[in-house]
Structure formats: structure tokens, C-alpha cells
TrEMBL record:
The keyword Lipid biosynthesis does not apply. This is MOB kinase activator-like 3. Zn(2+) binds at residues 57, 62, 139, 144. The keyword Glycoprotein does not apply.
Length: 201
């Protein structure tokens, strides 16, 4: 049992090459469908990852939504928060999750039926969703990684991150400027971030 779990973890840790390839749009697939599926999947997975540290992410430990001392995110949603507002991380993440949930549950934005077309704003909206989701990775990696390591979830989180990173890079969905806070870590865990490497058999 343990052995097979370990093997599984190792496999996912070493799956960078596959992850780089699996994000590519399969032949015959619609790009919007492909993006929609991934946005929903990443939302669910990142939500779960944050759930594993949320007990340790409080107004006291994290009075701002930061990524170290150099990066801080302000919340604005055009509704309750019209101006970018400094919020404690747990509040920021809760608003972010609610906001994304509202978007992906709106069938005019994320149509369920193939008869309903995607809105013209679909890709820009997904860019915004993924950019905001990335901030959760930033906060978790920089402020709560000890907890992730403690519960043994590091390979899982790294795999999710790699998958996310390769996906947003493949379709240019998160700007380099936004990816900056985790640049060094990305170079470490996604060493094959540039061209698609030749698969060794
Ligand atoms: Zn926190």
C-alpha cells in the first residue's frame, strides 16, 4: 500500500514532461471548451489546497493578502469593493472563491449546452479567473508551505501547480508580471518550462 502510494507520488512528481504535453489542445477540441474544463478543474483543486491551510490562515497570521514582503494583492470586484481594498488573506480568498463560483455557475458565461455559444468575453474572463487563482498559489506557497509539507501534500500541490503553470503558459492566460512572485520556484519545479522536450523511452 505504502509502496504503491509512494510510487504514485513519485510518478506525479516526475510527470513534468507529460503535464507539458497534456495541456495542449487535442485535435478536434474547441479551445473554449478546453479552457472551460481546465478553469473549473483548477478552481476545484486550488480551492481544496487552500482548504488544507485555511485553519492556519487567519486575520492575525495573514492581515493582508501577501506573497512575502514584495507582493500584496488588493481586492476589487466593482460591486461591494469598488476601489482596490486591502483585506486580510482569508477574507480576500473567500471573496475570490465566491466570485469565481458565481462566474462558473453562470450559464451565460460558462454554457453547459453546446447549443449555447460562449460569450465574446470568455477568454478575458478566464484570464481574470486564472490570474486570481494564481494569487492563491502565491499566498499558499510563500506563507503556508510548512503546513503543506507537514501534511505530506507537497507532491500533490507541486503537481497541481505545474499543471496550472503549463496550462496558462500554453495559452498565454496569465501575464509574466503576475507570475513573477513564484518565478524562482517555477524555474526549479518546471525546469522544462520552455520547449517541449523529446520524450525519452
Ligand atoms: Zn495566510
Amino acid at each position: 500500500m505504502r509502496y504503491s502510494l509512494h510510487k504514485q507520488a513519485q510518478a506525479s512528481l516526475n510527470s513534468g514532461i507529460n503535464l507539458r504535453a497534456v495541456v495542449q489542445l487535442p485535435e478536434g477540441e474547441e479551445l473554449n471548451d478546453w479552457i472551460a474544463v481546465h478553469v473549473v478543474d483548477f478552481f476545484n483543486r486550488i480551492n481544496l489546497i487552500y482548504g488544507t491551510v485555511s485553519e492556519y490562515c487567519t486575520d492575525e497570521t495573514c492581515p493582508t493578502m501577501s506573497g512575502g514582503s514584495r507582493f500584496e494583492y488588493l481586492w476589487a470586484d466593482g460591486a461591494k469593493y469598488k476601489k482596490p481594498t486591502q483585506l486580510p488573506a482569508p477574507q480576500y480568498v473567500a471573496l475570490l472563491i465566491d466570485w469565481i463560483e458565481t462566474q462558473i455557475n453562470d450559464e451565460t458565461l460558462f454554457p453547459i449546452s453546446t447549443e449555447v455559444p460562449f460569450p465574446k468575453t470568455f477568454v478575458p474572463l478566464c484570464r481574470k479567473i486564472l490570474t486570481r487563482l494564481f494569487r492563491v498559489f502565491v499566498h499558499v506557497y510563500i506563507h503556508h508551505f510548512d503546513r503543506i509539507v507537514y501534511i505530506g501534500a507537497e507532491p500533490h500541490v507541486n503537481t497541481c501547480y505545474k499543471h496550472f503553470y503549463y496550462f496558462v503558459k500554453e495559452f498565454d492566460l496569465v501575464s509574466s508580471k503576475e507570475l513573477e512572485p513564484l518565478k524562482e520556484m517555477t524555474a526549479r519545479i518546471c525546469p522544462d518550462a520552455s520547449p517541449v522536450p523529446v520524450r525519452k523511452l
